[in-house]
Amino acid sequence: MRNNMISCSAPGKIYLFGEHAVVYGETAIGCAIELRTRVRVELCDSIIIQSEIGRTGIDFEKHPYISAVVEKMSEIVPIDGVHLKVNSEIPVGSGLSSSAAVTIASIGALNKMFGCGLSLEEIAKMGHEIEIQVQGAASPTDTYVSTFGGVVTIPDRKKLKTPDCGIVIGDTGVFASTKELVANVRKLRESYPHLIEPLMIVIGGISKTAEPFFQTGDYSSIGKLMNVNQGLLDALGVNTLELSKLIYSSRGAGAFGSKSTGGGGGGCMVALAASDKCTQVAEAITGAGGKAIVTKPTEQGLRLE
Amino acid sequence: MRNNMISCSAPGKIYLFGEHAVVYGETAIGCAIELRTRVRVELCDSIIIQSEIGRTGIDFEKHPYISAVVEKMSEIVPIDGVHLKVNSEIPVGSGLSSSAAVTIASIGALNKMFGCGLSLEEIAKMGHEIEIQVQGAASPTDTYVSTFGGVVTIPDRKKLKTPDCGIVIGDTGVFASTKELVANVRKLRESYPHLIEPLMIVIGGISKTAEPFFQTGDYSSIGKLMNVNQGLLDALGVNTLELSKLIYSSRGAGAFGSKSTGGGGGGCMVALAASDKCTQVAEAITGAGGKAIVTKPTEQGLRLE
């Protein structure tokens, strides 16, 4: 028996540690956050994709990820008509893996609706393939964390204890191309390998050093290590004045620590903060010119709503 | 024959690379700048020390450095009466080695006035002893660079070619205790030696990597390395929002590169910039809330005025 309507959601993701260094095989730590993208699926006569940016059919320009999902799922089961309606709390293009979340939520909803029986592992894998198809290149981390939730080491995929505290996102509102930033870091590393390679290793070392602090709930030490990591991101040239303002303001307001997340060069920063400090951290970020969102880590990845 | 009046000057100093790491034996690069402290000495009936902060006799509270100089020089030659008048372009307590400059200029002037015949090496050494006496601890670098001028590697004291370009100082106006900052870095290093020791080594490596660029006049590469160094200072926890604003603004205005100088935690930043870009870099720093001073590297250390 098929349901007429299915709704699934998948979370966004931040890097608590290790972006950029992860490109060179170093350990990073990703964390699913309680900002979710919801995809509601209803049977209908044709393919309709509806989101904030409009209502289309299969449309690889406007809805590339969902179009690719429908195409890919059609290889498993015939999909004649379905109405996918997207609703997202995750700011787009700011390094919070909004594309992974919409992809995973869409696969999950169609998987359920059409009884395809894909496992979570298979959903994560398909999500990664779709990201590669749409973007040309993609880390498997985003789709993995969005599918499984929680705090995850990369590339080992060890699940760490989810911190029981708040996360405040600060969005600079500045668009930055991750591709370009990764290329700039590569250039710097090629110019000064004897300087930059050791920095990458130290970033990986920070992730490994932080691991036990998740198990013991030592958020203060996690925060201090985030700050060290942030300095190294600055050394790699992916920090900006706008990010720096939000980062320092959040620390001044009592965050355990803060850093940019993802490619940098704009986009978002994240602050780890005690739950009762989140409001003041958010206010400080707003005061420094950012758009603040209070959220928290979540253990829940893809889920039925 | 004695002159009735002698005037000497000595320059301030910035770190182009390597502060903090130099504490752990890593290479740093100091640079004398064309901001000078002038000390005029006249024979008179008693000891008079006159500066911006007032007119005193031997006074270890108000004029500790000059008082110590007069005391020390009196061990070599009887000094019954002398009027020392200080005039300085170097902001006090902002990491530009104002105390070394006033100490060296005072020793130099008395040395000349009373024909003591101290060599420059001896003057630098006495200056260092006086800094230790007054401060409890002091690096020999400040007094060395103020005495000999130019761009100098530390601890090797190799003289590099003086850059033919401008330096813009940005003063945050925030006082910070170098002693406290050095202690904080030490604490961080003791908490995470496997992370922080490699960073110190990379900072030393940056200085060594920069050395040949001074010889070839590749200011663009020197600037890029200053930016990497700045990120590592941020990682060590000695950066602040105020410094960051001035640093990023100076880069935005076309500086080759910029970083904090000295202890950090406030104080000054320095930007290396083409001579014809100095005005716009200075304006950017002013616009970002700092006090800007346009200056340049100087080969001249202690000199007779």
Structure characterization notes:
The structure is a homodimer of 305-residue chains. Chain A is α+β, with helices and mostly antiparallel strands and 305 residues long. The first copy, chain A, folds into 2 domains: 5-160, Ribosomal Protein S5, domain 2, CATH 3.30.230.10; 166-295, GHMP kinase, C-terminal domain (Alpha-Beta Plaits). Helices cover 42% and strands 24% of the residues of chain A. Chain A contains 9 helices and 12 strands. In chain A, strands 1, 2, 3, 4, 5, 6, 7 and 12 form an 8-stranded mixed beta sheet that branches. Chain A has a 4-stranded antiparallel beta sheet with strand order 9-10-8-11. In chain A, strand 3 and strand 4 (54-56) form a beta hairpin. In chain A, helix 1 (64-74) packs across helix 3, helix 5 crosses helix 6 and helix 8 (241-252) packs antiparallel against helix 9. The mean pLDDT of chain A is 95. Chain A binds chain B through residues 188, 191-192, 194-195, 198-199, 201-202, 205-206, 209, 224-225, 227-237, 239-241, 244-245, 248-249, 252, and chain B through 188, 191-192, 194-195, 198-199, 201-202, 205-206, 209, 224-225, 227-237, 239-241, 244-245, 248-249, 252.
